[in-house]
Every structure is written in C-alpha cells, then in structure tokens.
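Budget justification aside, the reviewers requested a transparent look at the raw inputs and outputs of the sequence design task funded under Objective 1. We therefore reproduce one unedited record. The lines immediately below are the structure tokens for a 758-residue chain.
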C-alpha cells in the first residue's frame, strides 16, 4: 500500500497481452490501460453553458484512484465548447452593458440579446480554461495531466500517427494522465459514410469515434463511454417496454431501435455503438454507462473496473445459456403457469421430487463427494461449512420426508379465501392468497437447501431463482436437474432457475424490476451484505442468530443439562444454536452450576465469561469481547443475571430476536418470559434447535425471519404468499353511494368457504 497526498491506494499487479477483448465483466479488474470518454452531457451543465463541476471532480477522483493503483488512464473529454460559450457570453454581456451605459448615460440596462455563438470560436475560448480546470483537480491527487488536441487528419498522416502514439506512450510512462480532445477550433466538417470500413479506418467526427480510434491505436484494454443514459436499450429510453441491455454482442444491432441523440454533443447512441463495436473488433473491451446520475456517478468508473453490472458491456463471447435477466423472466412466466395449476398438480410435482431424491441417491452423493473433495483440496472452507456442504443418506431421507409434508399441506395454499365482505347488494369482496412472484434465494454451502426451497416455491406458486455457492456446484447442478425433471410432468420446467453465470450477488440484488423478494441462506455476513446491497427489493431473513438460554432458580436439574447440551452441541454451526447462556446469580457455586460447567467441558465447548460472571470468579475463562457474538462453533458465552426481568432486558439488548429459551419449573416466571421476550421464537423448557420449519411441521423452511413485517420465525408456505382483492359487482359505480345516491354500504362479513378436509 502506498500513499500519495492524503489518499491511500493499493498497487495491483496488472499484466495482460493485448489482442483480444475481455469475455466477461469479472475480467475487467485486470484492465491496465483504460480510456474514459466523457460525453458533452456528462461534462456540461443542464443549461449547456458551463461545466458540471461537482460531477467532473468526482470523475477526476475516480480516475486518480485507478491511476494510483498502477493503471494507465487516459481521458477523452468534451466540454471546451460549453466552457467557451460561458466565457464568451459573459464577455458579450459585459461589453454590451458597458456600451449601453455609455450611450444612454443611464445605469438601468435594457434586455440585451445574445448573438448565436459559433462553435469553433467557443472551442477556442474554452480549451485553455477546461485544461486549467483538469490540472487543478488532478493536482489535488498529486497527479500531472497533459493536453493533446487532435483532428481526423492526424490519424491519416502516418508520421503524425507515430508522433501521437509516441507522445502518449511517453506520458503514460511518466505516470501522466493525457487529456485528449478533438481540436474543435479548426476541425473540418466530417466526411459522410467514410468511417467503419475496417479496423484501420474510422473517421474522427466526434469524441466517440476519437475515443474508439485512440483505444485501438494505443492497444487499450478497456474503453468506458460515459453518457446521459444508463447504457444501451433495446428501444429508445423512456419508451414503453424499453429494457437496458446488459451485454451487447456484435450482430445484435438489428434488435435495437435507436432514438435521437442527447441534448448536447455530436453523436447519439447509434454513433456510440458503432464506435464501441469498432473498438471491440480491435481488441478493446467497451462499457457504455451513465455518468450523470447523481446516485451512481460518484463511483460509476470504479464500479465498472471492479466488474459490477453497470451500463452495457460489449462482448464477443456469447454465453451458452440465458442471461440472469432472461432466467428471471422465465421464472416469472413459469411461476404464473405454476400458480394456475390445480393444487393436486403442484402436490404431484413435489411428491415426484421427493421420490427422485431417494431414487437418485447414489448420483446425488457422488456429485456431493466431488464438491467435498474440491473443498478439502483447496482448504478454503472451515469445518462448520464443510458439515453444511456434506450430504448423506439420512439427510436425503429427511429431505424426502419433509417434501412429502409440504406436498400434503400445500393443497389449500394458493387461492384460499381468507375474508369475504358484502359491500352492498350484489357487490361482494374477497381477499385471497396469491404467490409473491419471483423469489431470489441465495445460499452458501447448503445443497440440501435447494430441494427444500424449490418445494416451498412450487407449493406456493412462486417463480424461483437460485444462486448457490460455487463450493456446492456439482451438488446444486444435479439437484436442480431433478427439480426441473419433476416440474416437467406438468410443463412448468422453467419455474425454477439455477443461476450459473458469473453474476455477483450485488448485481443480482439490483434486479428490482424482475425480483420480488430476496431470501439469503448463509452466514450472518452474507445476510448483512445482501441487506446492504438490495436496491428496492425486500429481504427476508436474519443477519444473526444470537440465541439465549436462561436458567432460572426454579429450573429442573434433569432438564438443564439436556436442553443446554442439545441447544449448543447438537449442531453448533446452525443459526438456532445456543450462543449465550444466562445463569441466575443464586445458582452460582451450586451443584447444578457445576454440572453445567462439567457438561460443557466434556463436550469441549470453549467458555467465554461475560463481565458480571467474570467479576464473581478469581480465575475466570477469557472475558468475552462482545455480548453480541454468534460463534457458530463449540463456543459460548456465560453471563450472570439477578432476575428474569434482567434476563429479558439482556436478551433485548444483546440478542438478535431469533430464538430464546427459559428453563424453569415456575409457570408464572415462564409466562412472564414468554410474553415479554420480543423474539421470533420464545420457548419454555425446550431446546433452541426446535426453531426450524421441519420441526414446526411446515415440511421445510426458506429461512428464519426476524423482521416484524409479513413473516416471522421459520418461514414455510404461508410466508411465501401475499393476498389480492377480488370484487364482483353488477354495474356498480361509486356515485350511487353518495349522499343522495340510490345505494348504501352494507359491509357485512360473509362466511368463508369450507376448506378441503383432505
């Protein structure tokens, strides 16, 4: 790590043989030489007179960060005409006001008309000021900038091309950022139809073509074209059904309808696409993105280089399968067809999946063995994660039993009437259950999660996108194949999709128009990252599982050690495992307390002492660093409380609203704990490990939610449903219910239809 000025930065090793563009966004982080093209709409203000200084400063900061990482940055900039227009307008106004004041002898000025300013004159007046501004901004990051003005003729003259190439290479060698622009003060009109005749011929008629020509000449790895739109759309932005194209391939031009050009500048999107494809043909990767949006312009360049899904990426390599956007659309269409099936048909699909899990047991375990071997060879997974990754015959049998439970309980889920109201005569209202839509479930090291979640989505009629960890790739692949085989019996194979592309989780969380709910299954860090990254999509889940067991003074000796052992030691990596053991102060130095400690030692549980517990001991275990710790292993914290009220307060202060337990024989004390602890699951004389969809009789769960809206606790079929209102009338209008209207509201509750007893 080096530090220039007051900005720390990391020097990254970058080396790449030029000649072929990057195939995937994730490879863009390896780009060493980068050209950033700033369109007129990015550099200029909305009134087209003057520069957008805040936006420009942000761009300079990002370019400086990348330059200080060891990359070679070049900027192709517009803005000279706008800056010059501002200066010339100011001069003209000043000159006119002085002449008018001298001529009339009056201080009051009349309205003054500003003549139309010629673009070449504006460019001449603005170039020096624009460059001075860039120099001042780059100086803040201890970076030197140099100006180069070019015209189309400079590229057609072989000697000038060599001179330009040599100058740019020398500037880059000296860690200087070249600022390149067309010399608009002398540039001739562009020759029509003279560009894009081959890799070596493109006329410089605007800064798009200049940037493309420069990128190929300098063997640049990446060209970033910033404009005032998010990227390339399949139809003009703002039109109905216009969709942003994530990846654009040569030959796709026929599927795109171009609109008008931006408010300023020489070229529109069609010119940008032509220039981008020309650069791509020359071996340079291209991304077209929005450089004006206030929420993303501050990090758009660095996001692109980091491989995030920003703008439109131009690639010559078409993926073998559908894009994640196409998969989401397929899941939505498949989910709607699934929801329209009869309940018995959805149940048949789940029964078939349960049968396949047992019939294909050997193939599933063989695939899982490959994942386990890969994980052990790479040594990247901790022991708790390896346990989660592992499948066994007993796990598959339990999965099949759980799926059959889901199938049996799913017959009356979608379309169930939960409220009926007679609004008025012949006007009846119903509230019925419907699927949420498209679910995105992201899970780590848990291949058994795939059939569980798939069955719940099928039962509730939801489309499903699954993103599993690469450590379980073989297991996930075969389990997804079996899921689609089961779905095929009723022609809804596409309802469940497994994302196999190189999509980053953060990019998936931005698909707010395609995904209705995100459900993370994994570490607390994964859940926090997804909650932070989700843009406009609700996230169901819990970031931590800090579960407590409180041992009261009236606790049964026989029950205490059994419940604590099961809560902590049965599966310590689970989110519903005990993490903090609260002991009533009166139990210290009693045989019961000694039994608890001895049992934990026998089970090799590492004990951390809470502050109050440590104060009672002469030689205490290591004092806990935080009372809000989820260990996920054979470790736990022990803390002392003076009463059940203090235990409740401790749970509220340090818990995660997941699962909390009281062990006592005093019913009054137990009821106080059950009623006052504000967690998703609160138990009396039972292990924390019962907090599970299968053990609750839900068949399985998509996760455990600690949120207070919609679903809470283990989430089964009911948590994946929402409602809609159906109103059946006969020529009813609101005006009939006015003060002098002919109808009156009844609002009578009607009996619900009988549910299917089977």
């Amino acid at each position: 790590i080096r530090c220039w000025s007051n900005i720390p930065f990391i020097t990254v090793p970058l080396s790449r043989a030029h000649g072929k563009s990057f195939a995937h966004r994730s490879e863009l982080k390896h780009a060493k030489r980068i050209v950033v093209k700033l369109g007129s709409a990015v550099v200029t203000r909305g009134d087209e007179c003057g520069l957008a200084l805040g936006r420009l400063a942000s761009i300079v900061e990002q370019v400086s960060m990348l330059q200080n990482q060891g990359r070679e940055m070049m900027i192709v900039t517009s803005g000279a005409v706008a800056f010059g227009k501002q200066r010339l307008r100011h001069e003209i106004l000043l000159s006119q006001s002085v002449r008018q004041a001298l001529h009339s002898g009056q201080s009051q000025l009349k309205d003054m008309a500003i003549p139309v300013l010629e673009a070449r004159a504006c460019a001449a007046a603005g170039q020096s000021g624009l460059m001075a501004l860039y120099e001042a901004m780059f100086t803040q990051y201890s970076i030197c900038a140099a100006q180069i003005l070019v015209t189309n003729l400079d590229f057609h003259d072989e000697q000038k091309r060599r001179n330009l190439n040599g100058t740019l290479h020398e500037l880059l060698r000296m860690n200087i950022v070249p600022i390149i622009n067309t010399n608009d003060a002398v540039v001739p009109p562009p020759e029509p139809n003279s560009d894009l005749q081959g890799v070596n011929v493109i006329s410089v008629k605007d800064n798009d073509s200049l940037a493309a020509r420069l990128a190929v000449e300098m063997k640049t790895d990446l060209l970033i074209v910033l404009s005032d739109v998010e990227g390339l759309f399949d139809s003009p932005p703002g039109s109905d059904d216009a969709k942003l194209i994530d990846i654009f391939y040569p030959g796709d031009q026929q599927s795109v309808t171009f609109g008008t050009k931006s408010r300023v500048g020489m070229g529109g999107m069609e010119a940008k696409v032509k220039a981008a494809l020309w650069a791509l043909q020359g071996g340079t990767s291209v991304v077209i993105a929005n450089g004006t949006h206030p929420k993303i312009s501050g990090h758009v360049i660095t996001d692109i280089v980091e491989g995030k899904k920003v703008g439109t990426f131009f690639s010559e390599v078409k993926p073998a399968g559908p894009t994640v956007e196409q998969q989401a659309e397929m899941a939505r269409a498949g989910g709607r067809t699934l929801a329209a099936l009869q309940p018995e048909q959805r149940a048949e699909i789940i029964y078939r999946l349960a049968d396949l899990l047992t019939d294909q047991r050997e193939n599933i375990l063989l695939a899982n063995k490959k994942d386990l071997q890969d994980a052990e060879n790479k040594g990247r997974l901790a022991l708790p994660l390896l346990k989660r990754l592992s499948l066994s015959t007993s796990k598959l049998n339990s999965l099949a039993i759980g799926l059959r439970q889901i199938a049996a309980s799913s017959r009356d889920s979608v379309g169930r009437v939960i409220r009926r109201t007679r609004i008025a005569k012949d006007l009846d209202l119903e509230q019925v259950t419907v699927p949420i839509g498209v679910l995105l479930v992201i899970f780590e090291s848990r291949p058994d999660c795939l059939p569980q979640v798939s069955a719940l989505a099928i039962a509730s009629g939801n489309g499903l996108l699954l993103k599993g960890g690469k450590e379980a790739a073989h297991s996930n692949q075969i389990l997804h194949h079996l899921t689609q085989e089961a779905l095929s019996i009723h022609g809804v194979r596409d309802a469940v999709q497994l994302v196999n592309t190189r999509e980053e989780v953060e990019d998936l969380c931005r698909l707010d128009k395609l995904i209705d709910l995100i459900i993370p299954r994994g570490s607390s860090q994964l859940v926090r990252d997804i909650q932070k990254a989700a843009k406009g999509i609700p996230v169901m889940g819990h970031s931590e599982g800090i579960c407590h067991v409180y041992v009261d003074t009236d606790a049964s000796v026989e029950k205490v050690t059994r419940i604590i052992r099961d809560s902590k030691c049965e599966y310590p990596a689970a989110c519903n495992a005990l993490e903090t053991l609260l002991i009533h102060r009166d139990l210290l130095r009693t045989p019961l307390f000694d039994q608890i400690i001895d049992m934990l030692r026998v089970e090799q549980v590492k004990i951390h002492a809470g502050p109050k517990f440590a104060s009672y001991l002469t030689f205490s275990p290591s004092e806990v660093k935080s009372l809000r710790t989820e260990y996920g292993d054979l470790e736990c914290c022990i803390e002392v409380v003076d009463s059940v009220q203090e235990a409740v307060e401790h749970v509220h202060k340090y818990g995660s609203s997941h699962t909390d337990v009281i062990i006592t024989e005093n019913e009054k004390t137990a009821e106080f704990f059950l009623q006052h602890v504000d967690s998703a699951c609160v138990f009396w004389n039972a292990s924390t490990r019962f907090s599970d969809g299968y053990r609750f009789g839900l068949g399985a769960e998509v996760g455990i939610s600690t949120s207070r809206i919609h679903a809470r606790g283990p989430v089964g079929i009911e948590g994946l449903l929402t409602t809609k209102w159906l109103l059946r009338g006969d020529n009813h209008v609101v005006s009939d219910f006015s003060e002098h209207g002919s109808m009156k509201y009844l609002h009578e509750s009607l009996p619900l239809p009988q549910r299917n007893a089977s």
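Residues 1-13, 190-204, 262-267 have pLDDT under 50 and may be disordered. DSSP finds 23 helices and 26 strands in the chain. Computational costs for records of this kind are itemized in the attached budget.
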